[in-house]
Amino acid sequence: MALAPFADRLTRWQRAHGRHDLPWQVSDPYRVWLSEIMLQQTQVATVIAYYQRFTASFPTVTDLAQAPLDDVLAHWAGLGYYTRARNLHKAAQKVMADFGGTFPQAAAQIETLPGIGRSTAAAIAGFCFAERTPILDGNVKRVLTRWAGIAGFPGEKKVENQLWKLAEDLLPQYGADMPAFTQGLMDLGATVCTRSKPACPRCPLREDCRAHIEGRTVELPTRKTKKAIPERETVMLLIQHEGKLLLEKRPPTGIWGGLWSLPQADSTATATTLCHSRFGLVVDPSETLPTLIHTFTHFRLTITPLVVTVRETLPQVAEEDSRWFTRSAALKAGIPTPVRKLLQVKPSPQATLFN
């Protein structure tokens, strides 16, 4: 007996065994888009709470477009990869300016929005508008490389192009099946065809899956050769004065772009000079807190927190991108995860860290 086509088996499986209770499984393209961006580099379990808070504050694309960027970043704080949040804000404004506030329906138009690539655009178009166009996120790459027995790191252009062609060839015949098919690919990769210990007996594709038949599920997809992670160091200054802490806004691009963060020095020895030259403050170092290690995608940062107390303020024009915060206000602002951790550290009895 011949096997049913790939798409038929997958859509039937999704309708019977896939996920159907995720909060973003709706027809609103704004909410689908938001979830797709949040789910990049982040697990579903983590995203749900952020998604619910975000949509409560910005229920429509209009609300997001009109919101101050600081508010958007504050809602994103802790999710990491903050370029995603800045691009969300820009894209919402572009929807208002270029599409009259109505989210575009075609994948090609959706892809013109900041921060949206081919796969994300296709997911939105497939879920919300039944467009027959393939997706190729990390989970889908794993499913397809195993099913077709494709060797080579999926991030290499040659292999990726092969996977795009395969993904397109496997699309269902009818657009009405696209939501279940697209969700099925995601569900299969997330819950069955997992990175380690895939549940092959539960897979609807196992009968013609090359990796399963040939015992290659461990070696596929081919992993990228690991390189040593570069190490960097910085000193973060907790500058306190009259019960408040000084934060400065990061540049709009780069690490923690647009977030409020602690001023940084190259070393503890240069900290007092920096406070004087940049902020017009005469300070006394009071305590060095335990170091904190924060790992980014491409490097690992060792942070030495130095608590300093302002002894004297000098006449100086206030910098536009620096501001004094109470502890509670700082914790509500858009701040990087390591800064949030530092503000929650209880100092020694000898130190008088701001309240």
Quick structural summary:
The protein has 355 residues and is an alpha+beta fold.
Notes on the structure:
The radius of gyration is 25 Å and the shape is elongated. The chain has helices spanning 6-17, 29-38, 44-57, 61-66, 69-76, 83-99, 107-110, 118-129, 138-148, 157-169, 178-191, 210-214, 271-279, 327-332, 337-343; strands at 231-241, 244-249, 260-261, 264-265, 281-288, 292-295, 300-313, 322-325. With 355 residues, the chain is α+β, with helices and mostly antiparallel strands. Strands 1, 2, 3, 4, 5, 6, 7 and 8 form an 8-stranded mixed beta sheet that branches. The N and C termini lie far apart (73 Å). The model has no long low-confidence stretch (mean pLDDT 92). The chain has 15 helices and 8 strands. The chain has 2 domains: 6-214, Hypothetical protein, domain 2 (Endonuclease III, domain 1); 231-343, Nucleoside Triphosphate Pyrophosphohydrolase. Helix 2 runs antiparallel to helix 8 and helix 9 (138-148) packs across helix 11 (178-191).
